[in-house]
Specification:
8 strands, 47% helix, single chain, TIM Barrel, globular, 212 residues, four-stranded parallel β-sheet, alpha/beta
Length: 212
């Protein structure tokens, strides 16, 4: 498996970040790293996304900063040029996946259905995002459809929070979880990076509690 993806698995929880202003990128990166989760999926649906990825990557070279909500090959190029080390998409677009694999870029597309999982296996992917996780049935759904696809590990994202993340992390089909509860937009907008650091530490402690 790609070394970058292996490292994400070690963190166990990947903060999913929406940044509307790149000025928040550095203090947010500080808070995540100090809280014990030196990784982030920066959603590529705001104008500040690319610059935020660049700042976070430059200020914290040790940090695994990726781009989420990537919908086009052009966005892949833009994100990687900014410093993104992995690409996440909400659905499985074979063109994007093949492009990333050809360029040796770590990529995690979203899946829900058996057909999408079959495509992921055919493309040679070891890891997929299960999105939206809770609205799509959560762990029971993963177990129901994943038994046929034994090579796949999952990164559930969507509806993951402190009350259910332990159940996901205990499961051997779960590679890592994507979550936004420690980096909620209102906290970022308010500049409450101390609270973000606190919530991040709590999330990192949950991973240690479950996975050692």
């Amino acid at each position: 498996m790609n070394k970058i993806l292996e490292k994400l698995g070690q963190y166990g929880i990947v903060p999913v970040v929406v940044l509307n202003d790149s000025k928040d990128a550095e203090p947010l990166a500080d808070a995540l790293c100090e809280g014990g989760l030196a990784c982030a999926e920066v959603t590529f649906r705001t104008e500040a996304a690319a610059e935020s990825i660049r700042i976070m990557s430059e200020k914290h070279p040790e940090m695994l900063v990726g781009a989420g909500t990537v919908l086009t090959i052009e966005q892949v190029d833009e994100a990687v040029a900014a410093g993104a080390k992995f690409i996440v998409s909400p659905g499985l677009n074979p063109e994007i996946v093949k492009y990333c694999l050809e360029k040796n870029i770590a990529v995690t597309p979203g899946v829900v259905t058996p057909s999408e999982m079959a495509q992921a296996v055919e493309l040679g992917l070891p890891l997929v995002k299960f999105f939206p996780a809770e609205p799509s049935g959560g762990l029971p759904m993963i177990h129901a459809v994943a038994a046929a696809y034994t090579t796949l590990k999952f990164m559930p994202t969507g509806g993951i929070n402190p009350s259910n993340v332990r159940d996901y992390l205990k499961d051997d089909k779960i590679f890592a979880c994507g979550g936004s509860w420690m980096v909620k937009g209102n906290l970022v907008d308010a500049g409450d990076f101390d609270k973000i650091k606190e919530l991040t530490k709590e999330a990192a402690d949950i991973v240690k509690e479950i996975r050692g």
